[in-house]
Predict the structure.
Amino acid sequence: MRISFDLDDTLICYREGVPREPRLSWLRRLFVGDVPLRLGARALMQDLADRGCELWIYTTSNRDPKSLRRWFQYHGVLVAGVINQEIHDRRLRRTPRDRPPSKNPRAFGIDLHVDDSDGVRIEGEEYGFSVVVVSPHDKDWAAKVLQAVAERQGVD
C-alpha cells in the first residue's frame, strides 16, 4: 500500500501546543534546516513501513524533494517519493487553463493520503481518492491513520 502525507499542519506543525519530535542535531540542521516534526510521526511512519507500506510526501509547497527525503532520513524514516507543487502541476496541468484538484494522489498511484484539510477530503470524494483528515491538535492522529490503513487493507 502506498501512503502519502501532507507536510504543513500534518507532519510539520509550527502551531503552539502541538507536541514535537526531538530536534535534529545542530550538525544535521545545517544541511536540512530546523522544522518541527510532529510528535508520533517518526514512530507512525516506521510502523507503516514495517507493515510493508510505501511512504510518500505530497505537498503543495515547492520544497525541494531531495532535501525533504534527506530530512526524513535524518529522522529515521525512508520516503520512497516526494510530490511537490511543481511535480503535481507537471503531471496534472497539461495547459494553463487546466484546474486540477489541489492534490490527486490517485494520479501518482497512491492508495491513501493523510492531510489536515477538509478541502482535500472533499476533493477526494469528488475525484475518487482516499483521504484521512487529521487535525494538528488531535492527540490520537496516529491511531486514526493506522485505523484507516487497516480498513483499506481489510484488517481489523
